[in-house]
Amino acid sequence: MKLYKKVLLSSAALMIASCAAENTDNTDQDEMAMADQAAVVAPDMAEDMPARMTNILPDVPEGAQAVSLLGKTLVSGAPSQKILDNLATAKANYDADPMDAQNIIWYGRRTAYTGDYRRAIEIFSEGIEKHPDDSRLYRHRGHRYITIRQFDKAIADYEIAAKLIEGQEDSIEEDGAPGPSGIPVSSKHSNIWYHLGLSYYLVHDWENALRAYQTGHDLKVNDDNIVSTAHWLYMILNRMGRPEDAKKAIEGVTADMNVLENFSYHNLVLFYKGEIPAEEMLNVDPNDPSGAAVAYGVANWYLYNDQPEKAYDLMQQFVETDSWASFGFIAAEVELMMK
Questions:
Q1: 153 & 211 share domain
Q2: pLDDT score of 50
Q3: Strand, helix or coil at 217?
Q4: Do 147 and 66 contact (CB within 8 A), yes or no?
Q5: Residue 198: which CATH number?
Q6: 3-state secondary structure of 74
Q7: Residues paired with 74 in a beta bridge
Q8: Which long-range contacts (CB under 8 A, 24 or more apart) does 30-39 make?
Q9: Closest CA to 39 of 104, 119, 132, 101
Q10: Which residues pair with 208 in a beta bridge?
């Protein structure tokens, strides 16, 4: 519990710093303020690479990416050749023009897909130094801070990103690992609000998690966006002791929606509505990110429906798998740490 309180206090301090500057229109003062915000999370990077990286990454055992909330050393598996080839292309583009924000973003994203989340954070941090007002860099670095269990830093990054997109037109975000349809299903704004909500959820800050997911849900980018945010809203409201509001949050989700990718979230919401039995939902592979989402969703359902032993047993089985980078796995870790 002491660790939980420390995370919340750290999150609050970073959030206050990140929101300190007013969002005025393209003034020198605004640019300076936003650069100061970036410095909260990415300190002065004028030194050599090893020195500056000590300020943005926690210490871990050699060869590890992170240490789990339960004390386990987390190591990534070997990436496929296709993933390595994609990284090589992204690195070549970056080398050709290392100032280009898009090149930096894709170099960082492709690096993360290899399982080297720490190096990806370094790359995004370099990008933030070069482009402190580019919300995409905070969005992607925040994602990888979630992966390595640095929730306070993730919250700070996403609060900055949310501030930066105020008044901006939304745009579809290209997938790094396209789904079956090959059609991107998320946008820059929806991803920022989704991951900000997740970051708060992981420290059990229900009010802020609700705020972020409701904002993302209200964007109504497409049916994939609607079912994914409805799933989190339902869980959050139940954890807040508001079951009737939780039911209202998923009223608009139906079996015939045009979901292209987020099938796990869609099925979870249908499960919450009583249209799919729990036994069928648990027939998934928790080593797969989609299966991990389902496994956590069902276990969490048992938790807020007064069946904690069943919930924790499922979560314990789940965290023995290799899917430690998935959001469901991380959420299960949080619950087991705090029980």
A1: no
A2: 41
A3: helix
A4: yes
A5: 1.25.40.10
A6: strand
A7: 66
A8: 31/132, 31/133, 34/132, 34/133, 34/160, 34/164, 35/132, 35/133, 37/132, 37/160, 37/163, 38/128, 38/129, 38/132, 38/138, 38/160
A9: 132
A10: none
Give φ, ψ of 187 to 5 degrees.
Answer: -120, 170
pLDDT at 288: 83
User: At 58, phi and psi to the nearest 5?
Assistant: -75, 155
Cα–Cα distance list, 1 to 4, 8, 334, 336 (Å)? 5, 11, 11, 11
CA count, 13 A, side-chain hemisphere, 216:
32
* Chain mean pLDDT for the chain: 87
Residue 137 domain-assigned (yes or no): yes
Question: DSSP readout, 133-181?
Answer: T-HHHHHHHHHHHHHTT-HHHHHHHHHHHHHHTTTPPP-BPPPSS--TT
Q: Same structural domain for residues 49 and 154? A: yes
Q: Which pLDDT tens digit goes with each residue over 230-243?
A: 999 999 999 999 99
Q: Which of 116, 82, 119 is nearest to 104 (CA)?
A: 119
Same domain, 105 and 207: no
Q: Which residues pair with 78 in a beta bridge?
A: none
In a domain, 244, yes or no: yes
* Residue 262 and residue 298 share a domain: yes
For residue 285, what pLDDT band results from cuts at 50, 70 and 90?
confident
**Residue type (1 letter), 225:** N
Q: pLDDT tens digits for 247-267?
A: 999 999 999 999 999 999 999
Domain that holds residue 28: 2-67+77-164
Higher pLDDT, 320 or 20: 320
